[in-house]
Amino acid sequence: MGVEMDIINGLIHTMGEQGTIEHGAVHVENGKIAWVGTMEQWCGRYRAAGSEPVLDACGGWVLPGIIEAHCHMGITEEKKGMEGDDCNETVDPVTPWLRAIDAINSMDAAFDDAVRAGITAAMIGPGSSNVVGGQFALVKTRGRRIDDIIVKAPAAMKVAFGENPKVNYSGQGKSPSTRMAIAGMLRRELFEATDYLERKEQAREQGESFQEDFTKECWIPVLRREIPLKAHVHRVDDIFTAIRIAREFDLNMTLDHCSEGHLIAQELAAEGYPAIVGPDLTSRNKIEVQNVAFKTAGVLARAGVLVAVTTDHPVSQIQSLPLCAGLAVKAGLPMEQGLKAITVNAARICGAADRLGTLEPGKDADIAIFSGNPMEVFTRTLYTVIDGRVVFAEEGEDSAS
Hints:
The chain is α/β, with parallel strands linked by helices. It is built from twelve helices and 16 strands. The chain has helices at residues 39-45, 109-116, 163-170, 179-205, 214-217, 220-223, 236-248, 265-271, 295-303, 321-330, 335-341, 344-349, and strands at residues 4-13, 20-29, 32-38, 54-56, 61-64, 66-71, 119-124, 132-140, 150-160, 229-233, 253-257, 275-277, 307-309, 367-370, 381-386, 389-393. Strands 1, 2, 3, 4, 5, 14, 15 and 16 form an eight-stranded mixed sheet that branches. An eight-stranded mixed sheet has the order 6-7-8-9-10-11-12-13. Helix 4 packs parallel to helix 7 (236-248) and helix 10 runs antiparallel to helix 11. The model is unreliable at 397-401 (pLDDT under 50).
């Protein structure tokens, strides 16, 4: 592809201040969105210049690239069993120094499935077997080398409450085997990390040498509120414990899964932490997910909580993300909020709204073009564009190979 590209004749859902533009166009330059407006305006500005290529949306829906806000794509690989499963380091319950980027295989088939579904970015990281699992990364969904597709790393620190750490470690004869121990171990780790940061800053102010600790350096972006805790929480009691600890240490946090959030929606809205809801397109195979329901996203959004929707791939397949948002809409999430849950809201929650989530000048040219509403089951992906380059076209032209 060249350095310029135009997308024309589309129903442009900018998900930003320009709202929805009927019969609109998007102009891309050097991998960034340069201009968004009507076809009449585009004809006056760009048609005479004859920029190439031109993608004709033929009346289809043009959206920012869809974003998966929580998954394990490429770190739990498909079809590879134990050899491709690097999701949980289940020998130590506290491993904040682990980095997802060291285990994500971007050649996993799920990346291609994501691209074909119009998903252009995904937040990927460790699972929930540990009290502290390690660092998540936000990455683009096309590229062979992980270093070349990183949007933000570290992007969050994974922590987990409830059933998963309990089940994993109770059988090993060591903590945690109770919810008290999970909370206590996280508090102890945060207390030690806070003390470490204070001593480091004091040494710097006094011009003294300081011996850095690899196992504590990873907490500094969290303590400085540059990235959030990414809290695996399903039950009401675990949600409130996570909030209690985040408040104690004055941390940003996302409530991931939040399966019983609909039972405490007003309280969560008052607390102000965003929720990444799901996976709902799966069985209720654990005690703590007995109240999983597609209505949760809508109840939380109507209460004022910032909501994204997740597949938690491979729990649900990554390509089902738009349909999961659609099922949430069917259960009460407003249509516009459904689109936001997989675009701008996801970008905000992942800390990347300066680059992703809306079709606005200056943003990355990550764009998905659909035959209609992507949350409807018969809708087809016509084109997926990442960084101004067509990486999927329905007719099979894939320029990234």
